[in-house]
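PROTEIN DESIGN WORKSHEET
SECTION A - STRUCTURE
LENGTH: 221
TOKENS:
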């Protein structure tokens, strides 16, 4: 039976595909960020240095402001319902994101998800925490498969009991450790070639899974 469903966050559970670009846009620092992105894509900046340079652009921004922006990032249609339906079937839900742990924590709290990870953004102390410009890459983009393997081991779950849901090339390592792989509006479209099901959103996730792997579910109610 299905025991574990692992979701990417950005572009999979939430609409915005890139949380860093989204926050740059919200904070009006896209011009500066484009220079950093070019350096990161060219290999001039190592991954964690790229994250730190992004976070530096947000220095002094209050945690409350970031949470407001992240909360405004809408859920993909059907995301809440799909997660709750899987939970009703006794399935453990996890978020493995190379975005911000702050965002993953918010979504996990809203949806009752126990397992989640993301990159840790630094905040100073006090009554109104603000971004320090520091960041710790606890969930780097190249480590999603390793993080999923660690979670499966901790929970005693095999790949053939696991569902993976993502939207981009960075989710390919998640797909590699799952029996059934679902892409949500994949970008680029070629990511769809690596999965079993391609969906425009999450409204039909449960019906499509029941049709594809009926043995995973005790009932079809």
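SECTION B - SEQUENCE
RESIDUE ASSIGNMENT:
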């Amino acid at each position: 039976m299905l025991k574990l469903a692992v979701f990417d966050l950005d572009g999979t559970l939430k609409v915005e595909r890139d949380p860093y670009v989204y926050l740059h846009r919200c904070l009006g620092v896209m011009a500066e960020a484009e220079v950093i992105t070019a350096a990161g894509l060219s290999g001039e900046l190592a991954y964690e240095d790229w994250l730190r340079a992004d976070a530096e652009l947000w220095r002094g921004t209050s945690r409350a402001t970031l949470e407001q922006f992240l909360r405004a990032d809408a859920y993909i249609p059907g995301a809440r319902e799909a997660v709750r339906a899987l939970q009703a079937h006794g399935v453990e839900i996890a978020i493995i994101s190379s975005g911000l742990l702050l965002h993953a924590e918010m979504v996990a709290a809203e949806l009752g998800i126990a397992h989640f990870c993301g990159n840790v953004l630094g905040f100073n102390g006090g009554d109104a925490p603000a971004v320090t410009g520091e960041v710790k890459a606890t969930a780097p983009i190249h480590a999603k498969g390793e993080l999923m393997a660690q979670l499966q081991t901790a929970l005693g779950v095999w790949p053939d009991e696991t569902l993976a849901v993502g939207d981009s090339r960075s989710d390919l390592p998640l797909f590699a450790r799952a029996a059934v792989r679902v892409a949500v509006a994949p970008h680029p479209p070629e990511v769809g070639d690596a999965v079993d099901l391609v969906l425009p959103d999450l409204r039909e996730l449960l019906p499509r899974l029941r049709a594809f792997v009926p043995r995973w579910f005790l009932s079809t109610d």
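SECTION C - NOTES
The two ends are 16 Å apart (CA to CA).
The beta strands are 4-7, 92-100, 115-123, 131-136, 162-166, 180-184, 197-199.
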